[in-house]
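Entry 14. Structure prediction run on the chain below.
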Amino acid sequence: NQFIGPIPGRIADLYGLNYLNLSVNKFDGGLPSGFRNLQQLRVLDLHNNALRGDIGELLSELRNVEHIDLSYNEFYGGLSVPVENVSSLANTIRHVNLSHNQLNGGFLKEEAIGLFKNLQLLDLGDNSISGQLPSFGSLPGLRVLKLGKNQLFGPVPVELVEGFVPLEELDLSHNGFTGSIRVINSTTLKVLKLSSNQLSGDLPSSLRSCEMVDLSNNMISGDVSVMSNWEASLVDLDLSSNKLSGSLSNLPHFEDLNTFNLRNNSLVGALPSLLDTSPILSVVELSLNQLSGHIPGSFFTSTTLKSLNLSGNHLTGPIPLQGSRVSELLVMSTYPQMESLDLSNNSLTGGLPSEIGNIARLKLLNLAGNELLGQLPSELSKLSDLEYLDLSRNNFKGKIPDKLSNSLSAFNVSNNDLSGPIPENLRGFPRSAFSPGNSLLIFPKGMPATGSSQDHTLDHVRHHSSKGSIKVAIIVASVVAAVMIVFVFLAFHRAQLKDIHGRCGFSDTTTGGNAKSGGLARPSRFKFHPTAQAPQTSLSFSNDHLLTSNSRSVSGQQEFAAEIVEHGAAERVTTSSASVNPSLLDNEPVLSGRKSSPGSPLASSPHVIETFEQPVTLDVYSPDRLAGELFFLDTSLSFTIEELSRAPAEVLGRGSHGTLYKATLRNGHMLTVKWLRVGLVKHKKEFAKEVKKIGSVRHSNFVPVRAYYWGPREQERLLLSDYIQCDNLALHLY
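Output returned:
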């Protein structure tokens, strides 16, 4: 509902109250005193409000409650309450959900935990609870333990994975746990989430009954051959961003496996035919490894596979879409289900088979950075749902097929040998989508050189010309005064521009044009370096192309880094040129978005156009190694941090609070991303509170905040809202 204000105090007078559910409203303030009088209360559900208060005091008030859900509120304080204050509650409580609050301090003391004999579910996720975990061996009925996204550390209690506690789900992700998980002996554990910690050692030798295992973003090492001893009950497996090595040649038969993710490790050897041992696979993610050999054709005959990412490896040979068996299955009504195919940054050869047009549900196709040749098949036009197409850095020739999908929001065919006219429905993309390379392409007259809104500038001039006749009627004295004001304004504006360029760190060394790209800035990729020893306020930029996540497996790729360091009012730029490859900088492709709208801030500032008009990607170092968190204020919007980090983006403007970008997600949804200035935000809880307040505002002239990102360092603060295309104020004022 939409109830607001504090919870009425008279509720505490309902002595016979058994069930109280006020969830998903807008109640605020603290709980009324006198809850200790509600001796008959068994269920207290207040989740999704704006309630606040000390959690220790509240727990001390409750007596015989069995079910407590206070999640998604603003309760604060610690859990280290005296044993005598929770003894009455501990006798009856079965279900406790205090997640997504502002709890801090230490965890429950071991002597207090021992009182909760009937506890079955404990969810304290997404708070700021710190310290080590006590023993849970005295909880004979605990089925679900969720403590993710806190500040816990130390070893994982062995009783949680070795069967002393009958857990079915364990979530300790996004903390600071250390040590290793040698074996999982629990016969009841189905879901194990230990991602984004500091776990090390080898993979566990056994998983027993586990169906979902997420050990991603740790420091686990060793050979993946230990997986050959794992039980066949796995459904979802994520071991990405670790230090695993070895080959995948001896995988067991995981009959029910749906997701297989080992990206960003050091795997070698040939790519196995995973579909032979796991016939219902839906997602295969093996990018950023050192796999070699040919791609098995079985990936393209599966009736279940939806996403295949093999980018950033050393794969060779053709794309296996041809052959009687494959061709036959490609036209079957049950095939294919594939929506995403990424084979970029390998060494694939041959042409792009015409059978690609039969993968009718394809939304993403990325073949960039290979050695493919021949003409682009006209069957690409059959992919009506295609939103993301990158064929750059290959040897394709001939014409670009007509009538490619109107759903395309990201497109790049640069660094090929294409010729002929650009199809009409692709003329909204800037030239950076087609060049460098493709010297025989015929660009239509008036097509923006790099999406810089030249036509909009002409409209701007006409706008001023239309006002010229009015100015003629002004008396001479007014004209002279106006000219003087203009000269003063221009002098001030020029000084401001110099100051802005100095403060932003964009000098000729970083934004200077090259002859091949019309004097425009090279594409950059924003990165947060969690391990860097730079000053806390530094940002670093890289010349990595927009589709690659700093891959160590893409050989020969050089980086161009420029570091912006802010120190109060004094700011400077340091440019590392030791590893600059001039040819790489001149030919680096850009995944281009649509051109700027007429009212874009880019249109009214030529200096800003030269510096920022090419898109950048908000890449937060390696997406799987992010230590930050993405919070949504609206359940209708959902995407991952990795999707955001790989989203092509362009600068919209810069203000006193930070820099504004337009980012396009893989599904085509466009966001406005506000990268907040260093020092503007200090404390996470206060920031979250204010963002939630702003996000709750609804007005026809206000674009609400949809989500925000909080990283571990000061420069990692982002506000996200929907992108609204409209004119800017300057266009109407001047």
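The chain has a mean pLDDT of 76.
Filed with the rest of this week's runs.
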